[in-house]
Amino acid sequence: MNLEQLSLLDQAIFVLAALALLASFSLLAQTRLTAAIHSFAWQGVMVALVTTLVALSGIHHLYVSALLTLSLKSLLIPWMLHRLVRRLDMESEAESIGHPTLLVLAGAGLVIFCYWVALPIERLDMISTRNVIAVSLAIVVLGLWMMVARRRVVTQVLGFMSMENGLFLAAVASTRGMPLVVELGVAFDVLVAAILFGVFFFHISESIETLDVDLLNRLNEREE
Amino acid sequence: MDHFLTPGDWGLALVQTLLFLAGAPLLAAWIRRVKSRLQNRRGPPLTQSYRDLRKLFAKEAMVADTASVLFRAAPYVVFGSTLVAASVVPLLAVSLPTAAVADVIVLVGFLALARFFLALAGMDVGTAFGGMGASREMLVSALAEPAMLMAVFTLAMSAHSTNLSSMVQFNLDAGLVLRPSFLFALLGLLLVAVAETGRIPIDNPATHLELTMIHEAMILEYSGRHLALMEWASQLKLMLYGVLIVNVFLPWGIATDTGMASLAQGLLALVAKLLLLGLLLAVAETVLAKMRLFRAPHYLNLAFLLTLLGLFSHVILETGA
Question: Would A42 be classed as within a structural domain?
């Protein structure tokens, strides 16, 4: 397969998928909460644009999913998270990352791993944009890596949400989308999860007065 | 290559190198002028850079007592290797005999040679500023060079060649192809170019404030024609990066043959592209503030990450089974 032989539409899908991957990296390295939420919103925009482009090639129910993605993942959920951050008074707080360069380089290593895992799939003779599978797998794994490596609850939730972005991207770009019912179900699952997470933020910050989940590892409340 | 030995092509290469020499101060002056306008100042006229150079060449070159031979030789080495590096970059026409002799890795090598001597000259006199500037320059360049090479590899993998002429020709032939790898390489290379040419947010070319300067600290001891050569070399480097970026990523308009009409068209396209790039740089320098030195590694890590993602997206997305 050669890039020049693909249509401009498919090439645009590749560019947008790569930008979604970049958004994942920017999420991973971002220390400020508001900036991280913005990165997440941009990733939602990229995924929505990919969905629109796939819908343009004749699969009309994907317009609905694109609209749903745009409104939920790049507007509603970021807005809810922003409100939460403002209420918890953490707007200007920066989370300290131990080794930011190592974090990002490990992320790059994970991308290579995902490429290696997805290689057999790419050899199958499916649709032309099947190469996106490796990228979306990388977005999923980077989300997981973010949940492992970051300490604050809000950034971990962002990692979780971006994992869902990756799954959705894989579904859209490699199989031309799931049935609408499934997509609606997943979208509302994510919304409900976001609301529940919001409630949990309050409980955690009330009981241990911080959102640093590493403190949950300790059994007693005394400072040591 | 068949055009390797024709005298006409060598003549053209010479003309392009001379154009580089003549155009570099103008580009620097253009950026300064746009920047002044954006800051509501009138700014110096576009000929100011030439006047500065003429004045410096006419002045006596003072050399410190503690300076060694290296201090005197460094301006010529820096200027010479930057000029040779510039002669490798296709300016007006694609087919260059110099590009057949040296590829883009040699170009990076020439720039590294210039930087090495610049840093040595900075340390030679033994003042605190020179050594400080040299160590900072080495910090920046050690981080910028991997990113630069990664961008070069990304381009080379797409074009199947490390030769600059072939890369430009490849992009011309391919027409409009949206490549995620080129997008990332372009962004990464822009960041690297800003860092390497000592512009805001890494270094400020207009300041002599002790705590912030990098490039100026190294050439602080120079005067007269030595200083003129150093200044000219840094202007050449700025133009080199500018031409490299516009001609490799946006090659449209560059002359593919050596006819007069297409060369004129190539010149026109190049001037337009460089003016736009200068405008962009001036706007970026106006809205950004200079970073702390210890933030510079973060900035260059971002450049490295971008070029690395360019390489990944080339391998993952653009080549299939």
Answer: yes
Residues in chain A with CB shorter than 8 Å from the CB of B318 are: 3, 14, 131
Chain A interface test: which of B178, B186, B294, B308 (most A C-beta within 10 Å) = B178
Give the model's pLDDT for residue B1. 46
B179:A4 CB<8 A? no
CB contact under 8 A, B312 and A108: yes
**Chain B hits for A11, Cβ within 8 Å:** 177-179
Q: pTM here? A: 0.90
Q: Is residue A13 part of a domain?
A: yes
A15: in domain: yes
pLDDT at B70 over 90: yes
CB contact under 8 A, A104 and B309: no
Across chain A, how many H-helices and E-strands are there? 8, 0
Number of domains forming the structure of chain A: 1
Which residue range(s) make up the domain with A184? 3-217
* Residue ranges per structural domain of chain B: 2-318
Confidence band for A7, pLDDT divided at 50, 70 and 90: confident
Of B79, B106, B102, B92, the closest CA to residue B9 belongs to: B92
Considering only CA atoms, give the Rg of chain B: 19
Q: What is the pLDDT of residue A178?
A: 77
pLDDT of residue B311: 93
